[in-house]
Every structure is written in C-alpha cells, then in structure tokens.
C-alpha cells in the first residue's frame, strides 16, 4: 500500500517586502497660496476692513519713526544755531548778605578782542544794559506832551559793533552801526523790531531819530531774529562809545560769543583766563555743553509718546485681523469639513488660514509703509523740512505687517484645524 505523500509545509518567503509607496501630497504650497488668495479676493469688502487696521498702524509707526528722525534733524539745527553756539561771560557775583549780591569782578573793554583770539570763536560782542536816570524818557518826538499819560520807555542797551553777527540777527531795515561808530562814540541807534513798532518808526530813509533823555540818536537800522537775546527786540541799542560818553557806562555788562558747535566746553574753559588772567574766578562763563543735548532729550520724550500711540493702533489692527479671521472660520465651517473629508490634514487647514492672515498683514504693511512715507514727504515739503526716512524702517514695516498677520491668525487657524469633518458637515 502506497502511503499518501505528505505535502511539504509552505516555507516563509525570505525576500523582503517592498516598501510602502508614499502618497503624494495633494495640497502643495502653490495650491495653498492659490486657495488663500482666492478666498480673500472673493470678499473684497471684508478684505478692505481687515486691511484698514494694519494699514493705519503701520503708517502711524513709519510716520512716527520718520518724524522722529526728521524733527531730530530740525531740532538739532535749531538748537545748534542758538543754544549750542552761544557762550556768555559775566562778572562773578558775591553774596553780601540778606539775599543781595554784587559783582566780584569786571570785564575789560577789550573783551571782544581777547575772546575772538580763542580757537572756535566765530564772533563776539559786549552788551550792557544802560541805567537811565529817574524820569528819563526814550521817545521818537523831541517835544514832551504833558497831557499824554506817561509811558514806560523802552530799555536801553549798549553793544559793540558785531552784536547782530554774534546773535545771528537780521537787519530788516537800514544797516547796523560799525566799529567806526563805536570808536568815535557816534550818536546812532538800532531799534529792536518791537521797540520800533512801539516808537512808530518803520523806515530809516527819512533819517528818524529817537530821543534818549533829550539826546537825539539817529536811527540807522531796525533788527529782528535775535532768538538768543529776545529782550533786545524791545530795546534801543547804541554803541558802547556813545554810552560811555553820554551815560557814563562804567564797564561792559557781559560778553556774548558765537562759537562752533561742540567747541563750547573748550572755549568756556579758556574764556575766563583770557578775560581775567590774574583772577579767572572773577568771571563766570556759561558755555553750551554739547551738540543739541536738550534737543535729544525733548525728541526722546516725543518719540516715546508717538511710539506708544502707534503701537496701540498696531495692536488694534492685529485684533481686527484676528477677529475677522475667527469670523471667517465660523462662516466656513462647512468648507473646512468638506476639505477634511477630501483628505486635507489639520496642518493644511491651519496653514491655509495662517497664510491668509500673513497675506493680509503683509499687504497692510506694504500699504501702510507707503502711506507713512508719502505723508512724511508731504508734511516735510509743506513745512520746508528735509525729510529723513531710513530705508530699513520702510522695509521692516512690511515685514512687521506680515508678523502681525502671523500672530493674529495663529489662534483662528488652530481653531480651524480642530474642526472634525463629521461635525462640520452635519452642522453645515
């Protein structure tokens, strides 16, 4: 009897199994960009509303930084022109009790020549207020009318020839007296703009005169623009030679000098020795500390306020983007569920909403940056300023807009990625 053959047991295959074929991603980066832009363009009204907050915030930020740089330049020029270039030397004061003080020293009459020898000094002049006797008047008419109410006369100052050059004043009518007038003691006078208006003198071609305690002084010019010594605009200024002869002016009151920017400390350290070599402590010198230090302090305070305001507007824009994106997630729940049912992953859903927010933020940053730069140019042109715009600020504002969109769209995108397909389709 033949026994049935036994089948050989199936041996397991020793050949390795083929690797699984990876499924191609059916939602590429190009598809993501197309879907994001298509949804934004389908709702232009909402897009404009969403952009508005970002545009305003970025424009305010760019405008603030641009104004900060532009006004810093203008303030620096103004402060450098007046505060940072004006040096004053006066006799030191000594306390004599009961809150009274007297001059502890005196300035020489050749103070101008001494100061102008110092390196960094561009021009110098001596200035002194001339005390008038009680009842003395300064008028533009020689006859005193007793029927008129008494009026306080303008102040009287004596100065050397280069006063207006030192103070960077301007002669609006006529001319300034010169060193020859001062040396000869000629009775000529300059009127500050407000003093001329008060005395009724508007022109000098008719050779008007002012009468100082009865002495006639021919008006040779009217000046304005002495911002460093604004009180001179309400005064009559005569040469020191005439004041010494007619009113016995004993000594110069102070020395005013115009120095180069950033040379104030050096000139200030040398001026006292130049004016009083034997006793420098008898002269007090007030020199500018440096280039527009006050301007930088003022500008820093203004910048803080403006940056806070622009930051508030920018945060409001981010909140607007977040709110609109969240509303879009709620309205498109059915669409999200359908995409999930067709195979879109939560990451892809989140990426789409984040991309939409970044696009909105970037476009808002671009428009806001352009708006801020144009507004700065327009205001600077209207004011006659030199606009200063840092290119990094304009480019960085666009990137900042995209970052704001990214941060604002993160939470709504995360919420959209958690929507379950069945719940979404059932709710739709």
Describe the protein.
Helices cover 50% and strands 16% of the residues. It is elongated, with a radius of gyration of 40 Å. The protein is built from 13 helices and 13 strands. With 428 residues, it is of the alpha+beta class. Strands 1, 4, 5, 6, 7, 8, 9, 10, 11, 12 and 13 form an 11-stranded mixed sheet that branches. A two-stranded antiparallel sheet has the order 2-3.
List keywords for this structure.
eleven-stranded mixed β-sheet; elongated; 428 residues; alpha+beta; two-stranded antiparallel sheet; 13 strands; 16% strand
What's the quick description here?
With 428 residues, the chain is of the alpha+beta class.
Calculate the mean pLDDT score and round it. Answer: 79
- Tally of DSSP helical segments: 13
Distance between the termini: 77 Å
Largest sheet: 11 strands, mixed
N to C succession of SSEs:
HHEEEHEEEHEHEHEEEHEHEHHHHH
Question: How would the global form be characterised?
Answer: elongated
Helix coverage percent of residues? 40-55%
Low-confidence stretches: 21-25
Total E-strand runs: 13
Rg result? 40 Å
SS class: alpha+beta
Estimate what percentage of residues fall within beta strands: 15-25%
Topology diagram in text:
Layout (H helix, E strand, L loop, with lengths): L28 H13 L2 H38 L4 E6 L1 E5 L2 E4 L7 H6 L4 E9 L8 E2 L15 E5 L3 H5 L2 E5 L4 H6 L3 E5 H7 L9 E4 L2 E10 L10 E5 H7 L7 E6 L4 H12 L7 E4 L6 H39 L1 H9 L4 H38 L7 H27 L3 H7 L1
Parallel strand pairs: 6-11, 8-10
Antiparallel strand pairs: 1-12, 1-13, 2-3, 4-6, 4-12, 5-9, 7-10, 8-11, 9-10
């Amino acid at each position: 009897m033949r026994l049935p053959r036994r089948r050989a047991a199936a041996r397991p295959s020793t050949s390795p199994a083929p690797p699984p074929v990876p499924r191609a991603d059916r939602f590429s980066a190009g598809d993501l960009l197309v879907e994001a832009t298509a949804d934004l363009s389908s709702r232009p009204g909402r897009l404009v509303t969403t952009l508005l907050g970002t545009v305003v915030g970025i424009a305010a930020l760019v405008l603030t930084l641009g104004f900060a740089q532009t006004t810093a330049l203008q303030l620096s020029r103004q402060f450098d022109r007046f505060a940072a270039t004006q040096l004053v030397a006066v006799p030191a004061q000594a306390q004599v009790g009961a809150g009274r003080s007297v001059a502890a020293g005196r300035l020489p009459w050749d103070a101008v020549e001494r100061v102008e020898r110092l390196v960094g000094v561009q021009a110098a002049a001596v200035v002194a207020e001339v005390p008038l006797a009680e009842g003395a008047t300064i008028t533009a008419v020689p006859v005193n009318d007793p029927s008129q109410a008494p009026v306080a006369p303008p102040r009287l100052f004596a100065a050397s020839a280069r006063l207006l050059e030192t103070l960077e004043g301007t002669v609006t009518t006529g001319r300034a007296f010169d060193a020859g007038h001062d040396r000869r003691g000629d009775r000529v006078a300059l009127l500050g703009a407000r003093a001329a208006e008060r005395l009724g003198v508007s022109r000098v071609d008719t050779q008007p005169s002012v009468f100082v305690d009865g002495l006639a002084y021919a008006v040779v010019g009217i000046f304005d623009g002495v911002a460093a010594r604004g009180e001179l605009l309400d005064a009559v200024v005569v040469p020191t030679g005439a004041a010494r002869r007619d009113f016995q002016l004993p000594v110069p009151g102070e020395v005013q000098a115009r120095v180069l920017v950033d040379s104030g400390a050096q000139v200030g350290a040398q001026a006292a020795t130049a004016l009083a070599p034997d006793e420098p402590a008898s002269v007090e010198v007030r020199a500018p500390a440096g280039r527009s230090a006050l301007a930088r302090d003022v500008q820093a305070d203004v910048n803080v306020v403006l940056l806070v305001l622009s930051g508030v507007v920018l945060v409001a824009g981010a909140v607007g983007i977040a709110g609109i994106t969240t509303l879009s997630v709620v309205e498109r729940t059915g669409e999200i569920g359908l995409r999930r049912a067709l195979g879109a992953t939560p990451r892809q859903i989140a990426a789409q909403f984040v991309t939409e927010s970044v696009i909105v933020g970037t476009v808002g940053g671009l428009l806001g940056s352009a708006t801020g730069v144009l507004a700065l140019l327009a205001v600077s042109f209207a004011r006659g300023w030199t606009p200063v715009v840092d290119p990094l600020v304009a480019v960085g504002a666009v990137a900042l807009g995209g970052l704001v969109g990214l941060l604002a769209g993160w939470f709504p995108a995360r919420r959209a990625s958690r929507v379950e397909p069945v719940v979404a389709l059932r709710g739709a």
